Amino acid sequence: MSLKDLKDVTYYDLNNEINIPKDDKIQLNKDKEALEAFIKENVEPNLKKFGSLKEKFDFLIDNDYLEEEFINKYDFSFIEKIYDYLESQNFKFKSFMAAYKFYAQYALKTDDGNYYLEQFIDRVAINALYFADGDEELAMNLADEIVHQRYQPATPSFLNAGRKRRGEFVSCFLIQPTDDMNTIGRTINSALQLSRIGGGVGINLSNLRAAGDPIKHIEGAASGVVPVMKLLEDSFSYSNQLGQRQGAGAVYLNVFHPDIISFLSAKKENADEKIRVKTLSLAVTVPDKFYELAQNDDEMYLFSPYDVERIYGVPFSYVDITKEYDNMVANDEIKKTKINARELETEISKLQQESGYPYIINIDTVNKENPIDGKIVMSNLCSEIMQVQEPSTVDNEQHYEKLGTDVSCNLGSTNIVNLMASPDFGKSVDAMVRALTFVTDHSDINVVPSIQRGNALSHSIGLGGMGLHSFLAKNQIEYGSDEAIEFTGVYFMLLNYWTLVASNKIAAERNETFHNFDKSKYADGSYFDRYTTEDWGPKSDRVKELFDGIFVPDQSDWEELKQAVMKDGLYHQNRMAVAPNGSISYINDSTASLHPIISRIEERYESKTGKIYYPAPYLSNETLKYYKSAYDIDMRKVIDTYAAAQKHVDQSMSLTLFMRSTIPEGLYEWKNGRTDKMTTRDLTILRNYAHAKGIKSLYYVRTYTDDNQEVGVNECESCSI
Fold first, then answer.
1. Which stretches make up the Ribonucleotide reductase large subunit domain (predicted)?
2. Is 380 a catalytic residue?
3. Sequence-distant contacts of 426-429: CB under 8 A, at least 24 apart
């Protein structure tokens, strides 16, 4: 029997019985039965067998399945030792979905697709050996972290590590054109190249002149950003990795750009085909001034990027609009158009209701919290990456006159349930940071020199978290409660502390820091002031109990770290980001990211197999009431949860809002006496609440409609850890 000839299997039917109550109870035991049947009927008969581990590695190398170079960095006796350790840990998947996802998407198979060449511990061993780069102690530490699922490398890293024929390890990219045809052309080429090698691409269009702005030396006017959006969408559709996946891109525009209305209109269902973008994600960068104008129901001015750059000498994105707004309004040399701020706010809400877009980036919040010299002007395809960029200029031959810096994302995630059970929290995080450091050190995207340079200078990584809801439910804590929010804050404070410790150690070991470290708030120590003057440890008895046995730094520990960082620096410009982590959270038997579950028994439609049911991790009679659907939770609780983490996360987090077309009674007090249907007002209130709470970015708005459909669902596999 081979994988192409599977007959009379029972696991799909067993899994589907989870959705059929018996005696008014969920048949959770059917998932365990489906898992056992899957291993017995699918995996074991189709796993290629070898006489020894050496024979197996020789086969994988000789047949171009694995790279030889990283294996040769170790004595083979050590590889046998790491395998002995991994086998002794007796790893078992906890759900049918976890095993199914791993073997369907991650396990190495023979070229004819007939047999598996890997089990889970094989992929763990290869990841550990590859990312440790010959360091036996680190390899053993990484094997320990990954097999116990405390650490999960991002999908591109976990999937591609060690493979001879592979894609890149990085998850996604951020690039920006400036206001001329040469950089626009270079950006389209970059989008083609980056989409080809893997990962989603975020592109900032705010610097481009608006429709109607003048073009030098030509009697005519610019066409604005929408035609560029169409060119980019076609580029992503074309460069789709040989049809393996849809090319994915997100475009960013400042809310004060004159094309903002046409930008938003391009995503509407009824938009003219000439301007409609179907697959491109839309995102809006929103300065504080917009919230102020909308709150006061004032008129707002949209400013010509061409004139603004001419007057200020920097591209439009690099001007502080909140600070300069009144000066720009008063400046007759800047062309401007006037619209009503609240009407634009409503248009944004209407589109979010219809499509889930646009993402919202509170750009002033982002830059106020940014400890790095420079300006952040955009985010990525999933809205969690926030790094400084410098614009490039390109000559007529498409060469860089000035090579700026753009961004690649090197992601990984902690599994909150399992890291909280780590014998040594700090040691675990150190291993994770070092694995991610390998990815940034060995990433060399030379097809886009600005990405290559940005990565080489910043050494940035993004360590995040998944499984918050499963941790809370397992410990019988209600999502969004005071205790849950307090726990979230302490957990991410710890993650911040230990990533700083690890980055500082690496800087001292290598005698190297990220570019412009000396101009950062880390170098002058000011970043640490809030930690050295305030106690961020647990306050309530319940949260103290959760952290019992785990070292929690106090002000003196932070002061010691501050002195070490001021002395030896940090290797990584950025360290943390919370991605949406979709499919790989199933392998971890974890709820995704920091948001609540969608349903206690999730229904997933898998191509070629149909529906698969996934019970929430640790679901039982005891935890049942703690697993409330995101669609039935006040989104302010979700915002408060993310805000508690955001205080300690130097980049951002993919925060999805979950709404119902018909709002459950009593969920939002402002609905009382009004319609129970979701309105644009609801979304406007929540966006303003998020802004007031210090949230840097809002990802999708997902709406569950009255006919049981979801609007705004388009899971990004690039950043989904």
1. 558-580
2. yes
3. 426/498, 426/501, 426/551, 427/141, 428/145, 428/150, 428/151, 429/463, 429/495, 429/498, 429/499, 429/501, 429/502
